[in-house]
Design a protein that fits this description.
- The complex is a heterodimer.
- Chain A is mostly helical.
- Chain A has 23 helices and no strands.
- Chain A is globular, with a radius of gyration of 24 Å.
- In chain B, the strands form 2 sheets. Chain B has a 5-stranded parallel β-sheet, with helices on both faces. Chain B has a 4-stranded antiparallel β-sheet with strand order 2-1-4-5, covered by helices on one side.
- In chain B, helix 2 packs parallel to helix 4.
- The chains are: A mainly alpha, B alpha/beta.
- The interface between A and B is medium-sized, with 31 and 33 residues.
Amino acid sequence: MSPFERFSHAVKQAMILLLVFPVLAGSFGVLLPATGFFPALGFNTLDTQAIHSFFATPELVSIIGLTLFTGLGATLFSLVISIALVGIVYCYRPFSSTKRLLAPLLVLPHGAVALALIFLLSPTPWLGEWFPYDNYGVSIIFALVIKEVPFLFFMSQSVLAQSALNKELCGYYRSGLSLGYTPITAFLKLVLPSLYQRIRLPVFAVLAYAISCVEIPLVLGSNKIPTLSVAIVHWFNNVDLALRLPASVGAIVLMLLCIVALLLWRGSEQIIGRYYRWFVLNLNRTGGQLPLFILGTVSLIGLTVLILALISFTGVLSFATYWTSGSVFPEGITGLNWSVGLAAMQTPLLNSLILALSTSGVAVVVSLLALESEVVSRFMKRGGSSAYEKRFTLILFIPLLVPGVVFLFGLVWLQQLVFPERLWLSVGLSHLIYVLPYVFFSLADSYRQIDPRYGQMAQSLGYSPFRVFIHVKLPLVFPSIAFAFAMGCAISLSQYLPTLLSSGGQIATVTTEAIALAAGSSKRLNAVYVIVQGLMPLVIFLAAWAIARAFYARKTK
Amino acid sequence: MALELIDLSVTKDKHALFNVNARIEPGKVLSVLGASGSGKSTLLNAITGQLESVFTVQGDIVLNGKSIIEVPTYQRRVGVLFQDALLFEHLTVGENIAFGFQHRKNAKQSVAQLLEQVEMQDMQHRSVSSLSGGQQARVALLRTMASEPKAILLDEPFSKLDTQLRAKVREWVFSTVKAQNIPTIMVTHDAEDVDAANGDIIQL
């Protein structure tokens, strides 16, 4: 093996360590306080007092019930709507050009979506009981669905774009049409089963996130009955430090809730799977055609209208002087909100960009080397088997499946032990844990599809593996690199809890400031923050797209 | 500059795929025939040193009197031409050829001269995606020749070309390797390719 091949293999091992160790160590970091052991606060013996204290929490059953309800409900609705959207885009060519309409929702941070929804919908009297702050989690589910539908939709598109699978599924679909099945029925019976198997892990990630999300329930949830993750954050941030012990118990319970939710989901899959098999074989050639077509079309129109409404309403609000509830337009227009907002935002904006660009850059380099090491593994005696690669994919999902609330507090404790004064390193690492999986998945398909004969050809011309990597492979996947970098930046820009906890509140970003301001400040000023939150990833994506186009335009004249 | 395969065998899961003994003189073409799955491409991968870990190689490969079986791929100086031209789309025609040069010195001039030999002198700055199949095949061979290989392997390089073009490109490839005295191994299904090569034949 050449030194470069050895290096890429080492980087892949380091990547696995980076994804697994902080999560495990952080989770262990809440296990000890949960059993009463927290020497820093004078709790030096293991006992069950923290557990009793947690289970004595008022309305605990409602809190846990709300958490499960919103988590499972949001995931179910998101999945059904995504399937409807994927179906109409797959079956009807005119719809395929509309998929880009959902892209803005994909890059908007969760907190920004929640805040924008409040601006748009809270003055509306007839929604008042249900939105926001309702005790039933309806507003939380609504906001989560708006964010998770684009994610599942684009994950599905990415799966369907894989050329070998695409060819196979196209063949099935065409066979279904030729046998007399309507387009969406053929999609449901012949394409969806294969597709769902391949988006199962992202669905689990959505479920885990919906159960453990903090930003959306914090902004939109009821003040009387919080979700468990919000309750844990309140306990951890309470001035009474002793509440960290029941908070740690809560984190463990949240982890268990995630496992319960995943098991419930898997159990439901088995039950639905049996019904689905009957549906596939029932010879009904139009089953599901009309309902899914209507659902898909209405969802697409609804989401598009919502995106336009959110953007325009938030935009107008940011320039408004005073806007009374029920009025169609504000009383006046001013630039004061922007001048005040931008002046206050300079440091958080700079911090956000530094974190985003650096963590995404590191993630791109690490991911590319890890992907290159897959190629190397095929020529080594160890590693490289499909079972090894499946385990690696599962490892990539660990940070997405384990609730942040569970391991981030423990991770902070560990970081303070190991490098107490290195704030930026702490925050950067906690961002990287989340950025790395998304960047890797963004790059994986296109890198793995590089015809291996290009590398063989270049090596036969005398190029070493390192030079093949630099001069042949990287240019071939340059558009994907640009997109993955932009995706990594978007993920970093949206991080709330990792930034807050790892920096102890000392490093402010646009996202942390926006959510902090939501608690009391002017909605108009908040609107400025929401727009900047949305603009940052959008500008980065546009820059990535322009650079990728310019790269190929220069070479293909 | 002869290429020798000495008791070269490849095994997968303890099952021997083939055992080959051959000596290819400079400028000669050895044709390798065999049914699908008989190991033709595996043989070429063994010679270039790019077999996956599931395979085991034994025996020796000697090029110009030196054993290359332990030498890394990129140091073996064995050129390969595949069915597809595999031209790099992010490089122009001229840049693709220049990519193969061992030294930068006089690269531009050499590219122009090479393209003139194949009547493509005006296409140096063109995008490779604008070339026809035959033109791409010629550029691919020029790129390989630019690297001054000591042996060339042809993996069904003419199979995707139409009959007329196939004959033309084939004739040009064989005359080039003959003129440059490069020992060549060609994997093919086509009897016309074998006849045109006019060399030894191995059946796997």
